[in-house]
Amino acid sequence: MGSSIMNIGVRALAANQGALQTISHNIANVNTPGYSRQSAVLQDVEGQYSGSGYFGKGVEILTVERIYSEFLTRQSAASKSVAAADTARFDTLRRLEEIFPGGPDALGASVSNMLNAFSDIVSAPTDLTARSVVLARADEMAANFRAAAGQLNDLKLGITSQLENSVAAVNSLAGQIAKANEEIARAMGGGHEPNDLLDQRDELISQLNRYVRTSTIAADDGSVGIFVASSHPLVLGTTVSPLSIVKDDFNDSAKSQLAITVAGNTHVINESLLGGGEIAGLLRVQNTDLVDAANLLGRMGLAIATRMNEQQMLGVDLNGNPGAPLFSFNAMPDGLPADTNTGNATLSLAIQSSPTSGTDAFVASDYQLAFSSGSTGTLTRLSDGSSTAFDFGITNPLQIDGVEISISAGAAAAGDRFVLKPFSAVASDLSTAFSSPRGLAMASPIAATAGTTNTGTLALEQLDTLSVPPPPAVTLNFTGPGSYTRSDTGATVYTYTPGQPILYSPALPPNGWSLTLKGTAQAGDSFVVDANPYPMINADNARTMLDLRDALLFDGGPLTDGYASLMAELGIRVQSAESAATVSRHIADNIEQDRSSISGVNLDEEAARMLQYQQAYQASGKMLQVAQNIFDSLLQSLGR
Amino acid sequence: MRVGTANSYDSTISNLNTRQGDLVDLQEKLSAGKRVVRASDDPTGAAQAERAMTRTDRIEVEQRALNLQRNAMAAAEATLGDANSVLQTLRDLVIAAGDGIYNPVNRSSIASQMRGLRDQLFALSNRLDTNGVPLFGGLASALEPFTDLVAGVSFNGLSGQRAASTVAIPSVLDGQAIWMNVPSGNGVFNIALGGANGGRLWTDTGQVLSPTALTGNDYTLSFSVNAATGATTYDIVNASTATTVAAGQAYVDGQDIAFDGLSFTAHGAPADGDTLQLTASTRTDLFAVVDAAIAGVDGAGNDAALSQAIALALTEIDAGMDRLQSARGFAGDLLNRADNIDNRQEAKVLQLAADRSRAEDMDMVQGISDFQNQQTGYDAALRTYAQVQRLSLFNYLG
Q: Of A124, A211, A387, A391, which has the most beta carbons under 10 Å away?
């Protein structure tokens, strides 16, 4: 009897000690990431039959189990993955936003400062200082464009290297998971779950999800298969298929794609299927947000520089020569051919010049051209996905949004694809083309003269040159307050409306001049438009430059408001990225809290359990003492 | 609910971080005085503020240009005033030269005085504004719009006047209309003495009696003196149509001669064969008027030609002064307009400043109150954190 008590006591001591050991393991790992609390599962030992019934034989530890919810663990990893994607995008967009600040020192102000500077030339046409100021402002604006383009490029390079690092981390984590798979499979053979190894693997998967969202499928041997974008096996058992960052099939330097190499074959993973993870967030920023920002910037630079060059070339400089372009910049780059193209066509892009300048129709977007035959196919605007059919056989060059597309060499084959990036190269290379203030063509080659015997109150409001060289002289002879004839069209009578422009030729492209008169005409009044004999102290072209401030360029908005809308557009993106990041972080935090409420260690609980098992241990010790006393009593009675 | 100890620390730390971040963010906005520090704080507000800034800059530039335009126009107005007093002095001299007590030598000296004034007048016409642009250049001109040649003064520019816009006034006046556009004679016709006149016949500059009866033709009046009776008669011939309008009309000194809607007064005693030439008025320039007056006065005796020249000069100088006065009025109008534009632009600047402020400035009262709230919240979070974390069962063991 006594030995039985002794046995039960020893067993109880061992079991309670085991339980205490588990508790101390829990307490020790209270701050270990990914640790799931463990508990010793106690079980009573089957009793022994005797004539008086079954006598219990004590307690034993069945196993040490880890307390966790597979569902919550998976959810926690997935939500952290989404949060990591949103946070990565928000952090990067925040930096993108810093490139386009508002206020008096920013790019937008430098554009309007430059145009405003022409006002001083209007006031003092021969003042070289006013001209130098314009040139300096133009230079400053160009420098601001270059700086913004440079910062965009730096940001892009930064993202690319961050992507490379993330992919390296993913590959390393995948290797560790494969190793854990191997160890777990081996350990499972022993019949008990290797709790700590499983925790470690779950933690590795959770870390992996921060970079790229994965799905897991458990195998019978205890290993798990890890899949990226639902279907690409990153880890299968102990085999790892490494990820890498590759260029897209147009070798577009502005974009990156994620690829996986399975058994020697590299597949590009569709960005939209990634679902989460830092890599997904960064790819989205680089392939969408940065590309859009660069297009917005490039469009602004190209439209402003082109418009001003056009205007400058309509004027006469202080040396009496026609104006030379004020800005120089890279031409639109050729279309990027896909790797899979079988034809050898080269697609050239240019700014539409006829019937009107394309600058006001620019849309900040890239385009994709897909040939379905050697000359036909569809042209897709990538910003909104709208597509149109084209046929080079009918229209050559193609015109879209102020851009002209032509096949400049070779021939296209069916199935060929091209990406067109008309605005990608401008801003990084925008600069002023000359530095002599005399070179600014501020005089108009055309001038108007009122008849010396005019009796009405006709006054000149505006005379714009629309083409050079100027057309032959035209005399407007007023036949009454509301009508006139022109010397070049004989007896045809036109209606005169004060303040309405009178065009040299209403046909497109605009040519000659546009004259706006104010006041009332009397019969016999006349106005002559002819070449300007006095270009020296004339600044009519500077006046027209000032009018460019109101030119409707950017989606119908005035030129000087272009920057404000660019800023706002990026601001809206940052704002929505911020709220997405906040929301997904809260969700991730909440799910992590739920997971932790099941698996996490609570020190108060452990303290209470510790007391519980400590008391049981002490009681078991007492049992041994009782057994000893019983045995001693027996020995004493025998010895008497 | 069970609470994971490590997680409770994590989430408290994360909450504290968020609160601290909000506090720092608000503090940044408060210290900048702006509700919108980055475009993402309020994209619409940021764009509005940016647009308001662009517009304000533009008005600043327009105002600077307007000030220059106003200065130029004020200079033009003053120049026209100067020219008017020069012409007034000239007019006084012309009247003085008609006084019978002067002899040809006296009149030569008056003429040289007049030449000096004429040079002043010419200098005024070529005056420049502070930026070196001629005040009277018209729509376009050479650096010196008026050149004084032997043949007379010519205008090297394009006639015409630029209109004022809503934000600017022209800084240049039409020199052609002001200086080069004086009607000869009385504005309708011009009376000249025949070159071979031997008698003492002169006329005033005449007037229009009936505008509808005017023909616009040239006329010749020929006087004949009857040697026997001494009676003077005249014939009127329409030189353009070669028809006789009236013949053998008796001439009375100081009486009006009227025909075809016009009339003038002839004075003195014409000699036999003296003539008067009536021609339609043409456009001449102010300098030619003054030149003619000087030529008429220079070394002239007390004869009919002097009277005729003085009568013509006075009429034409008056017409020229009228031109200057009306241009001066126009300049004054423009200056007035400049003031109006100025007021309007100032009001616009204020409006834009208010717009900008509404779009991006911090409501300080609201901001500080928010800040206090957040500060209290952060303080409470710190305190409760410290207290809750002090609670542990282990404190009661052993």
A: A211
- The pTM of this model reads 0.87
Q: Is the peptide bond before B145 cis (omega within 30 degrees of 0)?
A: no
Can you give the residue range of the structural domain that contains A41? 2-67+601-639
Q: Do B293 and B278 touch, CB atoms closer than 8 A?
A: no
Which residue of chain B comes nearest to A106, CA vs CA? B50
Q: Identify the domain containing residue B237 by its residue range.
A: 185-281
Judge whether A73 lies within some domain: no
Number of other CB atoms surrounding residue A469 within 10 Å: 9
Burial A297-306 (b: 16+ CB within 10 A, else e): bbbbbbbbbb
Angle at A35 between CA A34 and CA A38, to 5 degrees: 150
Q: Which strand (E) or helix (H) includes residue B22? A: helix B5-32
- Beta carbon pairs, A and B, within 8 Å: 209
Strand residues in B273-364 grouped as ranges (E): 275-280, 283-284
Q: Does A337 share its domain with A404? A: yes
> Is B54 in Cβ contact with A532 (below 8 Å)?
no
Is the reported ipTM for this assembly greater than 0.90?
Answer: no
| Residues of B in Cβ contact (< 8 Å) with A31 | 6
Say yes or no: B236 and B224 in one domain. Answer: yes
| pLDDT, tens digit, 9 for 90 and up, residues A285-335 | 999 999 999 999 999 999 999 999 999 999 999 888 999 999 999 889 999
Give mean pLDDT, residues A192-212: 92
Q: How far apart are CA A47 and CA A59, in angstroms?
A: 10
pLDDT digits (tens, 9 = 90+) for B265-322: 988 888 888 999 999 888 889 999 999 999 999 888 888 888 888 988 999 999 999 9
Residue from A24, A37, A91, A123 to probe the interface with B (highest B Cβ count within 10 Å): A123
> In chain A, how many domains are there?
3
Helices of type H across A255-333: 278-284, 290-312
